[in-house]
Amino acid sequence: MSSVRCMANHFRKWPRSPRIWMVFLIMMTYCTPYFTTTIRQFCQDYDAACTGWLLPLALTVENRRLWIMLLPMLLFCDAPFLDEQQPFLIVRTGRLRWGAGQILYIFAASAVFYLVSFLIMALMLLPYLEFSLAWGKVIRTLSQGYITQMYAMDPLPEAVILQYTPLQATLLCGAGTWVASSFIGLLMFLCNLWARREVGILLAGCFEGLAFFVERMAWFEGRYLSPVSWVNIKDIGLGTKWSPSWTYVFVTGGILLVVLSAAILFSVRKKSIEVIRTV
């Protein structure tokens, strides 16, 4: 329970953190309008309403995926979260329980990041938002290239719409995003324990860049090595040698998270803890 309290303590600081507000402000003002502005215009022109299952579709678009997946780096850039309060928590709870609490926070914050991002993108459709468990006519229509050409937007991925229900797409994309965001957070945490904060940011940025390089250079085998690429459900689980299966994503992702978590707990026991100025 002390680990859970350490985790909850970080969430209590969110309303007072400019960095947290910046994460979701960027999501609202930069990452989301690319999708929602055009869809809102289409809904206005045809007096239609659109369902809110947009985030899994947005993450199939290369430039949106790049910017959205940079946000977990900003979310966790102050890892290992050593503000003035943490030495007292370490004394009260013990190093291992404190470390477990930080790991739980990264896991929970990654899930919250996806859920809030999903809600932001859906609510940006107002007043043209409708609630349905189906994709809806607007999303299906905007998966046709000849329609989207008139609005100068990329068509929504028809393959995803045909292969998955909205709930399946949202859950699978959420799981992939959770794995990728947690991986980035744990990696930055571990690096920042042993080196300067800039090292963790640089290494996490390398994995972000790898996902961009894999698609831009058509090095599709690299998807197996790039956790950030696993958020793109259009290219996962296709049954080809270029497409990692969902089993591979979850098993490999789980192993990565376990290894990083174990390394963090080992490091927390051995490394001296010093207060670091929060970002």
Q: Can you describe what's shown?
A:
- It is a single chain.
- With 279 residues, the protein is mainly α.
- It has one domain (2-270).
- Helix content is 66%, strand content 1%.
- Strands 1-2 form a two-stranded parallel sheet.
- The two termini are 27 Å apart.
Structure characteristics:
two-stranded parallel sheet, single chain, 13 helices, 279 residues, 66% helix, globular, mainly alpha
Write down the oligomeric state: single chain
- Structural class of the helix and strand makeup? mainly alpha
Strand line-up of the largest beta sheet: 1-2
> Helical region count?
13
Q: Please count the beta strands (DSSP E, at least 2 residues each).
A: 2
Radius of gyration: 20 Å
- The portion of residues forming beta strands comes to under 5%
Helical content (DSSP H or I, runs of 4+): 55-70%
Head-to-tail CA distance between termini: 27 Å
**What order do the SSEs take from the amino end to the carboxyl end, as H and E?**
HHHEHHHHEHHHHHH
Largest sheet: 2 strands, parallel
Total discrete domains? 1
Note the overall shape: globular
Enumerate the spans where pLDDT stays under 50 for 5 or more consecutive residues: none
Short recap of the structure:
The protein has 279 residues and is an all-alpha fold. It contains 13 helices and 2 strands.
